[in-house]
Amino acid sequence: MKGLIGKKIGMTQVFNDEGNLVPVTVIDVNTCLVVGKRTPEKDQYSAVTVGFGEIREKLLNKPQLGFFKKASATPRRHLREFRVTAEEAAAFNVGDAVKADMFAKGELVDVTGVTKGRGFSGVMRRWSFKGSQTKTHGTHEYQRHPGAIGQRKTPGRTYPNKKMPGHYGVERNTTQNLTVVDVDVEKGLVLVKGAVSGHNDSIVIVRPSIKVAMRAAHKAAR
């Protein structure tokens, strides 16, 4: 699975070829660089390590700095390994820039990010509970409470994974099958249709759609 590391710039809207207004998320992949490779002979699998975001050497510790110097690669702030075939890995060299043209207009991609943090939230916000306007189910005089959560004498306890108030957000989330609306190779931008998890300037991972790849594999197997 090839892919890119990028930074979510924000959302805007563009007109497509049919003249329809499409909401898009702008992802900056301008500083992606190949900083390492994994080979079957040495590592028992094939992969390419991609780095994103410039960083000063003084901000790295010795093991990190040694990794980049051993590979003769420019230091990068964020690293990610992408599994590829041995033939695909042979096409990449350490130090090569990975550009936005890896994805084509109209292609389907999966974008992984970390959702926005919303702190400690109640059940109405966290789990979309309707609330009780009739003061039933153990809510008494409160309308925004979850209601009764306990059981009877058997089993006499609250079941695990009960939907309760708690920390909401800051979870890894993948949005699948987003259409690439446009690619700007010169500026290093990828525009995908729809929203992507995470706040502006957050780091996201863009990969080809896994569902499209699985359908192709199943079709070939037939």
From TrEMBL:
Residues 131-155 are annotated as: Disordered. Keywords: Ribonucleoprotein, Ribosomal protein, RNA-binding, rRNA-binding. It holds the Pfam family Ribosomal_L3. It comes from the Bacteria. The keyword Ribosomal protein applies. InterPro entries: Ribosomal_uL3, Ribosomal_uL3_bac/org-type, Ribosomal_uL3_CS, Transl_B-barrel_sf. The keyword Ribonucleoprotein applies. One of its GO terms (cellular component) is ribosome. One of the primary rRNA binding proteins, it binds directly near the 3'-end of the 23S rRNA, where it nucleates assembly of the 50S subunit. Part of the 50S ribosomal subunit. Forms a cluster with proteins L14 and L19. Belongs to the universal ribosomal protein uL3 family. This is Large ribosomal subunit protein uL3. It comes from Corallococcus praedator.
